[in-house]
Design a protein that fits this description.
Layout: H1 17-31, E1 36-41, H2 48-53, H3 55-62, E2 65-70, H4 76-84, E3 91-96, H5 103-113, E4 121-127, H6 134-145, E5 149-152, H7 158-169, H8 175-182, H9 188-200, E6 204-206, E7 212-214, H10 220-230, H11 236-248, E8 251-253, H12 254-260, H13 265-278, E9 281-284, E10 287-290, H14 293-301, H15 305-321, H16 326-336
Parallel strand pairs: 1-4, 1-5, 2-3, 3-4
Antiparallel strand pairs: 6-7, 8-10, 9-10
The structure holds adenosine-5'-diphosphate (ADP) and magnesium ion.
């Protein structure tokens, strides 16, 4: 493979036309001297920064000045000066990663929320809900009360994720690589990490028809490392519990995990709430599902051999007692013997 991924290469924004339309509508409102506030939220790597960077085009077309600041960085006085200035020209003020803002800046933002949207100004605050910070949430709630709109960035559609992979590789991609890309759960940073790991490990080869696909399994370690880095910002207690949950499979029920880890259900749930808020797991009825199987397999692979075996033994009895079918129990016992991977 001869086309490495270059940082900062201008790949197109994929699968976000609805969100851009929404934001363009609000830019037009600012151009008409209305005020609006948007909270742009989503899991790490889902594309908040990428989306707000794409606002420049619409802003220029509508004659709206765009100021984009990223935390940590700007001082409280800068934010204050920016929002306070009477504005002749309509503007969009984008504050990226407010979850990383210093307390003084949060205080300033909180104060402005009490007066509501600023005329001729579109204020966009982007944030990630985890790690939880009370001062951030207080400020966010104040803006919600002031009428801020919520824009939650969802995973990319499977077709957009494959398109991103193809842009990064510079070729059409084959079924094996598509399969791995799908384990990124539509998270563009994880899709990028998959391709980077494959390229770095020279695990891709081009077939006669120009399609590029994976060859060999030598890149799994690099892939696991990339997935672990992706969730490295989570609390160690949350990561430890998720690693144990990974033994139960792609989805699990909370009482089973509580039994497996020998802790009260409420404690288990309290920890899992952070994983839910971070978007590492999602609720589906009574189950929790790993959002990116890539992350789950990396967590599983990160368990040391002895721990993994004993967890499988415990899982066999926990699930057996809970009424799981014999073949599920047997599969855990087999894995406890070291046979096969999950
Ligand atoms: N819609 C998209 N189309 C193409 N690439 C994207 C898209 N969204 C994000 N990316 C890429 O994925 C990576 C993570 O996006 P980023 O905006 O930094 O995420 P966040 O700010 O939410 O953590 C970046 O390399 C970015 O260029
Ligand atoms: Mg970002």
């Amino acid at each position: 493979m001869d086309e490495p991924v270059e940082a900062g290469q201008p790949f197109s924004l994929l699968g976000r036309s609805a969100e851009l339309d929404d934001l363009d509508g609000l830019l037009a409102a600012a151009a008409a001297r209305e005020g609006a506030v948007v909270l742009l939220e989503g899991e790490a790597g889902i594309g908040r920064t990428r989306l707000v960077e794409a606002l420049g085009h619409g802003a220029a077309m509508l004659g709206v000045d765009l100021v984009l600041l990223r935390f940590p960085g700007p001082a409280a006085a800068t934010i204050d000066g920016l929002l306070d200035a009477a504005t002749d020209r309509p503007r969009a003020v984008v504050l990226d990663d407010v979850h990383l803002a210093d307390d003084a800046s949060l205080e300033v933002l909180h104060r402005y929320a009490h007066s509501g949207p600023i005329p001729a100004t579109l204020l966009v605050l982007t944030e990630r809900p985890v790690p939880y910070r009370e001062a951030v949430q207080r400020m966010v709630v104040a803006w919600v009360r002031a009428g801020a709109r919520n824009l939650e960035l969802r995973p990319l559609a499977p077709s957009a994720a494959v398109e991103l992979a193809e842009q990064l590789v510079g070729h059409r991609v084959g079924p094996l690589l598509r399969g791995v890309v799908s384990t990124a759960g539509g998270n563009p940073r994880l899709v990028t990490a998959v391709i980077r790991a494959a390229l770095d490990a020279a695990a891709l080869s081009e077939h006669d028809d120009g399609v590029v696909d994976i060859e060999g399994v030598g890149w799994q370690t690099a892939l696991d490392a990339a997935a672990r880095t992706h969730i490295g910002y989570l609390d160690p207690g949350v990561l430890a519990l998720l690693s144990q949950a990974a033994v139960l499979g792609p989805s699990f029920v909370v009482p089973d995990l509580a039994a497996l880890t020998n802790q009260p259900l409420t404690d288990c749930w309290r920890t899992l709430r952070h994983a839910l808020a971070a978007g590492v797991v999602a609720a589906r009825g009574d189950r929790l599902v790993f959002r990116h199987d890539l992350v789950r397999t990396a967590l599983y692979a990160g368990l040391d051999e002895r721990t993994r075996r004993s967890l499988h033994i415990r899982a066999a009895s926990t699930l057996g007692e809970a009424g799981a079918p014999p073949h599920v129990v047997a599969a855990h016992l087999e894995r406890a013997q070291g046979a096969g991977a999950l």
